[in-house]
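Running this now, will post back.
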Amino acid sequence: MYLIDFDVIALLIALVSLYFFYAKKRVSDRRGRRFELLIVIVTIDACVGIASSLAINALPEANPGLVVAVVTAYYLTHNSVPMLFAGYIMEVCAWWPSSRALRTVFYLPWAVAMALTVANIPTGILFSVDPAGAYVHGSLYPFIYTLTVLYFVLFIASVAVPHSAISRNQRTSFAGAIALAVTAVAVQNLLPGLMLESFACSLGVLFAFLTIQNTDELVDGQTGLFNREAFFAYVREAFSRRNTFYVIIAHSRELPALQEFLDINGYERMLRSFTAWLSRTAGGGYAACAMGEGLFALVSTGKTLATPPGETAIEIANRAAEAWKITSERFELPINVAVLQCPKDCPGANDVLDRIDQLMDIPDRAGNRHVFYATDFVADKKRLDAAIAEALERAIRAGAPELRFQPVHSVVDGAKVAVEALLCLRMEGDLLIRQHDVMRIAERIGLTQRLANAFLETAVRWFVAAGVEALGVRRLEVRLLESKCLERDWDQSILDILASAGMDPSCLCLEISESVVASIPNVLSGGMSRLMAAGVYFALDDFGAGFTDLKSAIELPFPVVKFDKKIVHAGLASEKGKLLLAGTARLFKDIGRVIVAEGIETQEQADAMVAMGFDYLQGYRFGRPCDGTAILELLR
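Update: finished.
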């Protein structure tokens, strides 16, 4: 007689594990699909195990043919479990063979066991019901257990062989599953009739579900979407299929900034509302992942896509710009979206990550739009950044970073009356790295303070040595880096640089970006007042490109406000935009500010800015950034 108590418990454990597996959000990669098949077969195995024990216990009254059929079903499922567990472990350990020959070798013991089980029906080589109605084992019964030992060798190797693909907790879980299986077989041989194998399999699956296949570690708790680890699991899985798949990246600078305006519950509702909408928009063909604050990615999972990726990206960009209502508040969340076709655009997972990092800055390079494609990205950007960092260090050590200069046109004078100095780096192959990327790399490698001093000193000395003032240019405009403002007595060090070069302070206009104004307004105030008393001008740069505290921008002594080309181009795109742009310009004019429009590329744009009351215009229409010699020729 077979005792089924432990089989019943095994079935309950398997059913509970199966329920929570399907109830939880899970990654549908190859590893996840292997575990899904394993947990389903273990559940069926426990169920069929109970049925087979009851059928054997019913002998000799039971129908012998029915008993053989039920026990055969048990052997088919039970002898599949070690193979499935071994395949799952090899997937976790990244040991799954890539060659067809090795995969054939892996499946061979299982195939032999299945063949013997089917051949047993007419031959009785594994088990049978004798004429007296008793259940007996056949001559090859021990051999079929020998086949499963081969899979146990893989179990033990996964624990014994050191490798970095699995964690300590995963290794412990594997060891526990092996110990359970060995103990179950040993006790079962000592106590005939006690069925423990299915119980051990169910516990082993439960251990794996709670530790190795715990999907809670793959879900972002704040958004409910998959996290970065799950994203890369999907990407690796997609690359392994060697078929075309798509990645849609979405980034919102405004979304994290809402934390300053909403309480924690309001922000949580806003975030959940947005991510739920993003998941619905993506549909079943994508896995939605949270990659960071305001950064999301959708990975196509191989299913048929309801809409082309480009249309999905445009839908995200368009809807995100509409108002979102949270309680009584309404917010707009403009989003930059990129579409990547892999492996055509990105041959590997690291290339995808590189494009994600680039999306943070790409709008500053690619212009005033919200949907970007592969051609907007820089290939192998990490290597390029490393080369830029090396070249920048050399330039700073030499004390003379390369500069470009762009003229500023006066509407009243009808002439170029100022030049803006811009940082740049000349790389191999005549590749020119512009100011935005130079500053970004300098900040990343901790060179901003040294760069700020070298930048200002080089620009000031050029202005004086070239005699630019004699050509009708009244001011040199130079970006003041945030690191410079954080220096002790930063205002005095600027005056020292001017005195050393012999430059009149009234010829210098220091540009301060919106981000600096928003982050350190109190630090700026005193230094700006002292420098202005000495004659130095100040301009609020890139207005409309970031998150300026308007109160600080108005209260700080900025005689000049430079409208960023983004807000200029966006304002000229529609009649409503023109009204908003003109109203903003009038606001600054009413409080006595001088206003400059950047990004002017056509005469039509220039005429529109003049009509709105702008005092100065800057852009390709009046001269592209060029070296010192070329700008002097242009001014003459």
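The two ends are 108 Å apart (CA to CA). More later if anyone needs it.
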